[in-house]
Amino acid sequence: MAQEIERKFLVKGEFKSLAYSQSHIVQGYISSAHGRTVRIRIRDEKGYLTIKGASNASGMSRYEWEKEIPFNEAQELMKLCEPGIIDKTRYLVKSGKHTFEVDEFYGENDGLILAEVELNSEDELYEKPSFIDEEVTGDIRYYNSNLMKHPFRTWK
């Protein structure tokens, strides 16, 4: 079983000049109930099928299984997804021995920028880059599957 352990943060300030890579991501959800998701992702010209379990109490850990699938199959599966699509650019930024994934959202989530760092354990230390702001780990409003249903632009 693959366990994903990550912390999530709001982003404030300049980060793009620090990125060593970027890619365009469009994703949809075949299922997104009870904290468990089945996701289809198209990242540049590659397709992925991902299954995630519900988060633990801290919101940092959950089961994750992902498999690359043919691009054309990902395009077809996107047609089966629930209403609402996540559209974003992902920037990769090194900080110490970790890589922060910084997502700049578009469409109904325009204006939202989030950063995640994957860890080997919940208490692993990491170096925060200067653009990291408030931690939102475990806040379900910031889960992509929730942003699909309740976009950032509709928040008050």
Structural write-up:
The chain has 156 residues and is mostly beta strands. The chain has one domain (3-151): Beta Barrel (Hypothetical Protein Pfu-838710-001), CATH 2.40.320.10. The chain is 9% helix and 47% strand. It has two helices and nine strands; from the N terminus they run E-E-E-E-E-H-E-E-E-E-H. The protein has helices at 71-78, 144-149; strands at 3-11, 21-33, 36-43, 46-52, 61-69, 86-95, 98-105, 113-118, 132-135. It has an eight-stranded antiparallel beta barrel with strand order 1-5-4-3-2-6-7-8. A hairpin with a 2-residue loop joins strand 2 and strand 3 (36-43). The longest helix has 8 residues, at 71-78. The protein is globular. The mean pLDDT is 96. The active site is at residue 29. It comes from Bacteroides luti. Residues 2-149 form the CYTH domain. It holds the Pfam family CYTH. InterPro entries: CYTH-like_dom_sf, CYTH_domain, NeuTTM/CthTTM-like.
